[in-house]
Amino acid sequence: MTNVPIEGILLPDEKHNHESPSNWKEYFSFSTDHKVIGIQYLVTSFFFFLVGGIFAMVMRGELMTPESDLVDRTVYNGMFTMHGTVMLFLWTFPSLVGFANYLVPLMIGARDMAFPRLNAVAFWMVPVVGILMMGSFFVPGGPAQAGWWSYPPVSLQNPTGNLINGQVIWLLAVAISGVSSIMGAVNFVTTIVKMRAPGMGFFKMPLFVWTVFSAQIIQLFGLPALTAGAVMLLLDLTAGTAFFDPAKGGNPVMFEHYFWFYSHPAVYVIILPIFGIFSEIFPVYSRKPLFGYKVVAVSSILIAIVSGIVWVHHMYVSGTPGWMRLIFMLTTMFVSVPTGIKVFAWVATIWGGKLRLTTPMLFALGALIMFVFAGITGIMLSSVPVDVHVNNTYFVVGHFHYVLYGTVTMGLYAAIYHWFPKMTGRMYSESWGKIHFWLAFIGTNLNFLPMHPLGLQGMLRRVASYAPEYTFWNIIASLGGFLLGMSTLPFIFNMVISWMQGEKAPANPWRAIGLEWLVSSPPPVENFEEIPIIISEPYGYGKSEPLTANLSE
Amino acid sequence: MKIQKILNILTLLTGAIAITVISLWIGQQAYSWLPPQAAAESLLIDDLISFLVTLGSFIFLGVTSTLMYSVIFHRAVKDDFTDGPPIEGNITLEVVWTAIPILLVFWIAGYSYQVYEQMGIQGPSELVHLHNPLAMQSAHAEPNDLPANALAEPVEKIDVLAKQWAWVFHYPEKDITSTELHLPSDRRIRLALKSQDVLHGFYIPAFRLKQDIIPNHAIDFEFTPIRAGKYRLTDSQYSGTYFATMQANVVVESPENYQQWLAQAATQKPSVAKNQAASEYAQTSHQSVQTGWVTVPPAAPPLVNSPG
């Protein structure tokens, strides 16, 4: 094990040479340092976030008017397919893996991940996925146009007649992304189980580590189903098999089962680490311990378990028998119990604290409020009769964008600001951060709230044109979308300028409790000169007890 | 000290009452967010939506106002860098707020189950007949809030064919085809849904009803229109390039007018119906950005007695 404390290996003066990368080149070359890989993930995924955002702008531009008049219908269909795919597989997943990569070893007192080279290989598959996806715009027929669900038989229709087409490339890219995620999951689970510092029992782990652990366990049981479904679809498309092709006796509904068996739990893979980020941020800026730490920790595992039995709620109207609709209604609603526990715990943590509304705190608070909203519409969607009406309408689109933008992306921003000084050794500009927050918060609500009335009125998702009575809310949503696009500008500006010439950051600018704040900013290559020995629970705000027995605080 | 406690309880009570009143009001507003109630099922579903909106508003307002109270009144003073009180948990509180969501879940699920059972919208016929342990009843044994004659036979049977990208309705009794769905009001309607090519979805927002149509599956779907008027049927399951154009008119009329329409349509010779997908495919498109990406050609426009 790498975690045997070896004393006197580095003298304080030598330490300077071992600090994390000081020039850009190291971030763009093969590295096995979990911190470099973490930042590689974050920068790469943010690039694709902008790409996916541009697709969204084109769609919102098209939806400014009822007619299909800005782009071809084929282009529009390609746009929404690629928007969904890019945002999920190239933005939310990899950016959260980036954070987990950067933070988990630091938070558990390890010098690196369990398998550093596997870690690097898993990362380098992400640009490959990205290049494939973007390359598909240039094959005849354009990129995949069957939506990110790629339900057959639409996904099996290949009007170009070519073997190499957008849909085939899409399936390959998704499969590679799945392999990369499985590699990551094995690495994270091993690291968390095996490499915790002495004294760090499971109930002394920070909650971010708990949530990463739960999320990665979902990856291990869920991804094989998606990968199997993708491979079978690929065979149907290229080799003439008939797993899902009804024209040859296959069953397209089976694909829906394979797909959602993973793709609903995937939502929890994304949102669990965000819950972890909330649990890290609220105590620091409220100066209070996390309320109900143990229950909050266990609720992550509960969410992971329940997530395995909810997928059919995406298929209530897919010819699903009544008894199955009702069982999955109950299991889906049950997710609100462990989630509710977390929400109440955060509210209780903030209550009576000494709040500081820094940029990360603002983002976390805004994200929490939007998450509560998303949770409530989620309960509505789980109710079979309500879902029968709003399924596949903009109500669903609004709901999941409150989850994926309102909560996940805003939570990611909170995390980026919170750990920016640690990662770069520089402070960011608070005033630019606050401008970013308000633009993003207003933009998100303007963009996604109008989708709820649209959905209740019956406007369908994935349409390039719509009935004139839906125009008003669509214009509001589009304007909100453009504002949201603009809100990234102050962020990019802030990050680039601050990283180049921000004020030097101390080791612990927020006076936070946690192992990552005990090392310098940015941390040295091997994280800890001496492996810490953990003696107390995390989040001991107001208790003035030391976290470790050997490192100075 | 005691006065402070009483004041706190009063504040809490006032807050709770205010939130309750506002939530009830929002719940009533929910009806106005929905299309007209044109089917018996929509009455049930709208009540359920209103109930969930009321409950949801209460939870949302409760959580956000607590948070906002903290944000306004529990801010750190400028130079105060001390910590807040180290409160780590409270078993009673944690048990209570675990129990409340569990009870709510059972309440919501129970109510939803009741509504679903009353709707009796059916599903894929073979599945309904083979395994149906919960004995979903169709609305024949149905409650008083449905119009009395909705329960009476005969049931109106109509075949629905979905294809890329058109709806075709066939009335087997008079052997009539149409691209406009005519329905008698206050009669139980039974549709036999079929797809010629890919997955489609049968969705009439004014009826609050939706059902996917799966190739090679016969799917029965039942409901009762109750309000005369003209509505829209849309395809709710993404079906390829011209997905958005796959719409049809739904005309709900009195049984007499409906019979008249049937009789009148029976005299018409079949003609080619108008079809947006086909005409868009034939024309060069007007969009400013053109790629020339090939698409699946639309099925031939249907031949119908009544093009609507």
From TrEMBL, chain A:
Residues 18-535 form the Cytochrome oxidase subunit I profile domain. Its main location: membrane. The chain crosses the membrane at residues 39-59, 79-108, 120-139, 168-195, 207-235, 259-278, 290-314, 326-349, 361-382, 402-420, 432-450, 470-493. It is a multi-pass membrane protein. Keywords: Cell membrane, Copper, Electron transport, Heme, Iron, Membrane, Metal-binding, Respiratory chain, Translocase, Transmembrane, Transmembrane helix, Transport. Cytochrome c oxidase is the component of the respiratory chain that catalyzes the reduction of oxygen to water. Subunits 1-3 form the functional core of the enzyme complex. CO I is the catalytic subunit of the enzyme. Electrons originating in cytochrome c are transferred via the copper A center of subunit 2 and heme A of subunit 1 to the bimetallic center formed by heme A3 and copper B. This is Cytochrome c oxidase subunit 1. It comes from Nostoc cf. commune SO-36.
